[in-house]
Design brief:
The chain is built from eleven helices and eight strands. The protein is of the alpha/beta class. The chain has a single domain, classed as Aldolase class I (TIM Barrel, Alpha-Beta Barrel). The longest helix has 16 residues. The protein is globular. About 35% of the residues are buried. Bound molecules: SN-glycerol-3-phosphate (G3P). SN-glycerol-3-phosphate binds next to helix 7.
Length: about 220
């Protein structure tokens, strides 16, 4: 499973990168706003800075909601850097834009996926990635992981090449369960990624090894 970090914070990206496990980055307008990045020039520069920090795909989301606007914005984003993936919302105009970008060889990430039907449509339109938001489904008492399973079954039935990018990851068990189900990618915060490191028996075991070593040295 590929590991993406879901942030626009350069320090967090560097921290994940330093672990040697990072395959890419996802951002969204809320994450960019959280970092205080605004204005077209600064936003585009920030995407380039992120691309220069990591080797893999970097999702940059369009703001437009009409086909022409999505295409214009997406082409500008894609021209910034070869690692840019154009993030497009799952709306009717977005589906049309997914097909347009796919035909032009521009990578896409179809975001705000909350149903298997939406994921099926995005794959039909040639999306590179689909982003089912599992945490936000869990927030409204709906099993987000079940959606990942449904999409996995559908994509495997027809050998769709669209990759399932499990998004809105909140904690380590989301990551582990997504890996068990067969999500191709997960994108989560640094806290969930680093949470995978932790086990009290590891800490206890290491403390004992070091104490025993000290006795004879
Ligand atoms: O980037 C999309 C998704 O990961 C957002 O997550 O935590 O805002 O639901 P969250």
């Amino acid at each position: 499973m590929k590991f993406f970090i879901d942030t626009a914070n350069l320090e967090e990206i560097k921290e994940a990168q330093s672990l040697g496990i990072l395959d890419g980055v996802t951002t969204n307008p809320s994450l960019m706003a959280k970092e205080g990045i605004s204005g077209e020039k600064d936003i585009l520069n920030h995407y380039v800075n992120i691309c220069n920090l990591v080797k893999g795909d970097v999702s940059a989301e369009v703001i437009s909601v009409d086909f022409e606007g999505i295409v214009e914005e997406g082409e500008k984003l894609a021209s910034l850097h070869s690692q840019i993936v154009v993030k497009v919302p799952m709306i009717e105009e977005g589906v049309k834009a997914l097909r347009y970008f796919s035909d032009k060889g521009i990578k896409t990430n179809c975001t705000l996926i909350f149903s298997a039907g939406q994921a099926l449509l995005a794959a039909k339109a040639g999306a590179t990635y689909v982003s089912p938001f599992i945490g936000r489904l869990d927030d409204v008492s709906t099993d987000g992981l079940n959606l990942i399973s449904e999409i996995r079954d559908i994509y495997d039935n027809y050998a769709y090449e669209t990759e399932i990018l499990a998004a809105s990851i909140r904690h380590t068990m989301h990551i582990i369960n997504c890996a068990k189900i067969g999500a191709d990618v997960m994108t989560g915060p640094i806290s969930a990624i680093k949470g995978l490191l932790k086990h009290p028996l590891t800490d206890i075991g290491l403390a004992k090894f070091l104490a025993d070593h000290k006795k004879n040295n």
